[in-house]
Write a structure and sequence with these properties.
The structure holds two protein chains of two kinds.
Chain A: H1 6-16, E1 23-26, H2 30-40, E2 47-50, E3 54-55, H3 69-73, E4 77-78, H4 81-90, E5 96-99, E6 103-104, E7 110-111, E8 114-116, E9 121-124, H5 131-137, E10 140-144, E11 181-185, E12 189-193, E13 200-205, H6 211-216, E14 224-230, H7 236-252
Parallel strand pairs in A: 1-2, 1-5, 5-10, 10-11, 13-14
Antiparallel strand pairs in A: 2-3, 3-4, 6-7, 8-9, 11-12, 12-13
Chain B: E1 4-5, H1 8-15, E2 21-24, H2 33-41, E3 47-50, H3 55-63, E4 67-72, E5 76-77, E6 81-82, H4 84-92, E7 99-102, H5 105-116, E8 121-124, H6 132-135, E9 140-143, E10 150-155, E11 161-170, E12 175-177, H7 184-190, E13 193-202, E14 213-215, E15 222-225, H8 243-254, H9 256-268, H10 275-281
Parallel strand pairs in B: 1-15, 2-3, 2-11, 3-4, 4-7, 11-13, 13-15
Antiparallel strand pairs in B: 5-6, 8-10, 9-10, 11-12, 12-14
Helix pairs in contact in B: 2-3, 3-4, 5-7, 8-9
Classes of the chains: A alpha/beta, B alpha/beta.
């Protein structure tokens, strides 16, 4: 029996969402592990792009910052940041944006700006960075985030980046013609937007997780698809590659063992 | 006017004054930390600091009381957590109150590009469905006169001074950047004056690509040679990012007294010559 943590299950499921021919804009944080796991397993030819301007990067360790030197040294090309945002992102050359969030609603709208009021925040978060335009200019958006009532809320405190807005066709009303969030991968399950209403519905549950656990860790009323799949457990190969990646990363960043 | 080689002290004293709008760029790479320390040592106040990712360099300037306003698009210590001096100034007014103007990366990259291009504003497909336009009056929407499409507009960035770090200057004062080049070229060309700190001054650049990112000597104001001047950021080909120090910064910056003790020992009592040893410790 293969043993793994919920976080490993999440990262592996997120990696599986990516295809070999994807061109993926990698958000800071959890997406980076998933994108590089995909590259090191089933999607060796995937093009990973970081907002520092590195195109087609193949880092051996996960970058601590999105501009670490290894991203440039292993990239096909490194361009200036205005070119990255203007030609490559805004120009529509990127198929998938992979993002994390601090707060998320059921339509995949993202908050990474503030908890509480903007002018008098309870918690001031780092802000949008590249996400507001990644969310609207990439062909589609995958989201990865640990599930909790605090993070998965009915109403986010600030809309940093657009998902499906108020649901239905609302996203298009902002002049956005890209698909938006098409998959949300958590440590408990996988959700996909309802084809009409665009609210997230649970389509696959990770092994050993109950529907009650998902409901308890979600701030909105959870909907389940008519047929809910069971996510395949991580393979020995996926776990081996992921753990080796984390081990190399910790060593490279000077973590105390 | 052709760039002049000078000491860091002279460069900062002649280019930066109280109340200036200043941009110190470098996207993770080539962040001009030594120059940041000199601005703190010279006690320059009331600066409007512009930078996409304020990072540790602005955490230090803000904590030292140099800033009255910050224009930024992502304010964290990447992979580590918050910028505690930034938050303390913004949330509690310590050591002075800090006003913020917040954008997205795309907006700031476009605004630097517009500044370099001599345009009054940048126009781009941005902020669609996002809430920042509600809280930042410097984000507006205009209609394309040809298609009617709604487009975001932000003012061009036109700093009084831009400070950046590069790998090399040649003897004539031309500047060479390599690796992740961020918005440095745009930030320099958008500014009235510029200070370029470099790892080394060489006779010539040798066999460099004709498409390399260069600034000719007449496009920059002051050049200062400071080996290791980007530490704990990095200079590709010279030394690596000191990720361990970025992590060590968190407890230093979290506490006002720990920060002040660090500032006194490493900045006030320090100088640009201290950076060479930091470079040597992060080679390879």
């Amino acid at each position: 029996m293969v043993e793994y943590t919920p976080t490993e299950m999440m990262t592996v499921s997120a990696a599986r969402a990516l295809k070999n021919d994807d061109v993926c804009f990698v958000g800071i944080g959890m997406p980076s592990a998933a994108c590089n796991l995909a590259r090191l397993t089933h999607a060796p030819e995937i093009t990973l792009i970081y907002e520092s301007g590195t195109i087609g990067t193949k880092p051996d360790v996960l970058p601590l910052s999105i501009g670490d030197g290894e991203l440039c040294e292993t990239a096909v090309n490194t361009v200036a940041v205005p070119e990255m945002f203007r030609y490559w992102l805004q120009g529509g050359k990127i198929s998938v944006g992979f993002l994390g969030a601090a707060q998320l609603d059921k339509y995949g709208n993202i908050n990474t700006t503030v908890i509480g009021d903007y002018d008098n925040p309870k918690v001031r978060l780092p802000g949008g960075g590249g996400a507001p335009e990644i969310a609207t200019s990439c062909g589609e958006v995958f989201l990865v985030m640990k599930q909790s009532k605090r993070g998965f809320v009915n109403k986010i405190d600030f809309v940093t980046s657009l998902g499906h807005g108020k649901g239905g066709e609302d996203r298009a009303s902002y002049g956005v013609d890209t698909k938006g969030p098409s998959r949300l991968i958590t440590d408990l399950c996988i959700m996909e937007p309802h084809p009409v209403g665009k609210q997230f519905i649970v389509t696959s549950i990770h092994p050993g997780v109950t529907r009650e656990e998902i409901i308890e860790n979600t701030g909105w009323d959870v909907e389940f698809a008519d047929e809910v799949a069971e996510t395949a457990i991580p393979s020995e190969e996926e776990l081996k590659v992921l753990r080796a990646l984390h081990e190399r990363t910790a060593k490279a960043h000077g973590d105390q063992q | 006017m052709v760039a002049r080689f000078m000491s860091l002290k002279e460069a900062v004293a002649s280019c930066v004054k109280d109340g200036d709008t200043i941009s110190m760029e470098g996207f993770t790479h080539l962040i001009p930390h030594a120059a940041g320390h000199e601005i703190i040592r010279q006690g320059i106040k009331d600066l409007t600091l512009i930078r996409m990712t304020p990072d540790m360099i602005y955490d230090q300037l803000i904590g030292a009381g140099c800033a009255k306003k910050l224009v930024f698009s992502w304010g964290g210590n990447p992979g580590v957590g918050s910028l505690h001096r930034l938050r303390d100034a913004y949330e509690k007014g310590w050591p002075t109150k800090l006003e913020i103007e917040e954008h997205s990366h795309a907006a700031m990259a476009n605004a630097y590009d517009a500044g370099a291009a001599g345009l009054p504003c940048a126009v781009f497909k941005g902020y669609r469905g996002a809430e920042l336009p509600r809280v930042n009056p410097n984000i507006k929407f205009i209609e394309c006169p040809f298609t009617g499409e709604s487009l975001a507009a932000v003012p061009a960035i036109r700093p009084d001074v831009t400070v950046v770090h590069a790998q090399k200057a040649n003897k004539k004062g031309d500047i060479l950047f390599e690796g992740i080049v961020g918005v440095q070229k745009e930030a320099v060309l958008a500014a009235k004056k510029s200070i370029i700190t470099v790892e080394e001054i060489v006779d010539d650049f040798g066999d460099v690509s004709p498409n390399a990112v260069m600034l000719p000597n007449w496009a920059v104001t002051a050049i200062v040679e400071i080996p290791g001047g980007a530490h704990p950021s990095y200079a590709q080909g010279y030394y690596s990012r000191d990720n361990a120090f970025y992590k060590a910064w968190d407890p230093i910056a979290r506490d006002r007294e720990a920060f002040q003790a660090w500032l006194e020992e490493h900045v006030i009592k320090g100088g640009p010559e201290d950076f060479a040893a930091k470079r040597d410790a992060n080679k390879g």
